[in-house]
Amino acid sequence: MSRSSAERPSQCWMRLLMIGGLCAVIFLIDTLSPMDMAIAVLYGAVVLFASAELDRRGLLLVSGGCVFLTVLSFIITHGEAYTLAATMRAVVAIAAIAITTLLARRNQDATASLRDQAALLDLSHDAIFVRDLGGVITYWSRGAHQLYGWSASEAVGLQTEALLRTRFPCPLDHIMAELESTGQWDGELVHTTRDGRKVVCLSRWSLQREAQGRPPRIMETNHDITARKQAEDDLHQARSDIAYVTRLSTLGELATSIAHEVNQPLAAIVTNGEAGLRWLQRDVPDLGEVQLSMSRMISNAQRASNVVGRLRALVRRDAPDHLPLDGGELVEDCLLLLERELANNRVKVCPSFPPDLPRVRGDRVQLQQVVINLVLNAAQAMQAVPEEERVLRISVHCDGATPAPCLLIEVEDSGPGAPPQVLNALFTPFFTTKKDGIGIGLSISRSIVEAHEGRILATPAEPRGLRMTVQLPITGDMAAPGLQEKAS
To answer: What sign has the CA pseudo-torsion 76, 78, 81, 86?
Structure first.
């Protein structure tokens, strides 16, 4: 128990007077009482009282004083007429004082050890508290006081969830079941402090099972990661901003191709409309040709609408939405947007999309950004080789050989390739092999793929060139029947 320096002298003298008074009362009863009893055994209560109030030296002095008073009372009472019974009573009293002193010393040592351990726990910046299985707090560290705002005297005896308004990542029953089976649990919790702030904590629970009649207890250690989580959210937002700017920059580079893709169906609509009017203005209108012209107009209008829709999707800044996607359709949409760009670079495209591909979960716009970036990089890498050798192979297929089935999107060029040291640095931010590049396209692509729990790899192609492989996991409910059997 902590005491202020102003209280210690007066309280110390008060305790000494109480101990002296008890010793005097017992001595008088032992000396003056006619009862043949080992009254000196009551000195053991004095020793117990002294052990709770005095240090080790003070306890030994009180114990020695009790033994001295016992011997003195024996001498005064019996003089030289010592009887065996009286001697045995004195010996029993002295033995009781000695044993009580020994036990009290051990209790003092244990208490001191516990206080030292508690002091060490208080040195931790983490919030540490102990509670029973009902959630009632039995120990509350200084770190818990600093983090949550309640002192130990205020928190002990209260129910944890009610005090901290804990928000769990999963049902509490599941957490307790894991704690019972393994003795440990860790995860992220959201707590509310005394002033109403929300703090995110990395929490570790340890279960102390029943031992020597003591009920089971749970020690909870909480490390405040609120600032780290906020930094992660800010970093994620910054990456999203960079990805969005990069997407707009890519669209700017493709402005000519996009204009061609939109103008071509619009020009076809005008041409078919004029042709339809001419067929109607004939002396005998040819309704069959008019109908054919109208059908062509509708088809070209839908084509223009699809191009505009894809562009709007790429420009929109919506939050990522992971939905079931067809990998083949996703790549085909990208190739339609890049058709003009690939034609201008005299690149021959060899696509391979087998039927009945399993779907993957992902954000269509983000994954389109990855594919567009890889295809553009491949086309630009082949500018140094003869036109007849510029071949871009792009395929989508399944790989059931990995521990978990995945969908592979491979983009392979026939350019000069890259040495091993460059391959290792391709996905490093701001690393580029282009004169006018800034080196963030592949880094952003890797961030997007990893956010989809996938991987992106760069390997040499045969006989030359570079192969970029995007691996996306296939969930069990979307795998093709053959892959489901292999995975099971």
So the answer is: negative
What does the angle CA 275 – CA 277 – CA 281 come to, to the nearest 5 degrees? 120
Bridging pattern class, strands 360-362 and 198-208: unpaired
Q: Tell me: pLDDT of 183 over 80.
A: yes
Alpha carbon distance 185, 218 (integer Å): 10
Order of strands across the sheet that contains 455-460: 348-352, 391-399, 406-412, 466-473, 455-460
Residues in the chain, total: 488
Q: Angle 287-315/255-281 helices, nearest 10 degrees?
A: 160
CA dihedral (388, 389, 394, 397) positive or negative: positive
Q: Under 8 Å CB-to-CB from 450, ≥6 apart: which residues?
A: 456
Q: How far is Cα 466 from Cα 17, in angstroms, rounded to an integer?
A: 92
The answer to whether residue 100 scores a pLDDT higher than 60 is: yes
Please give the pLDDT value at position 3: 39
Given a cut of 80, whether residue 481 has pLDDT beyond it is no
**106 burial level (CB within 10 Å; 0-12, 13-18, 19+):** exposed
| 148/102 Cα distance (integer angstroms) | 41
- Give the Cα separation of 91 and 69 in Å (integer): 13
Taking the C-alpha atoms of residue 330 and residue 407, their distance in angstroms, rounded to an integer, is 13
Structure tokens at 283: 């002396």
The answer to whether the CB of 368 falls within 8 A of the CB of 408 is no
- What pLDDT digit, counting tens, does each position of 102-145 carry? 888 888 777 777 676 666 666 667 888 889 888 899 888 888 98
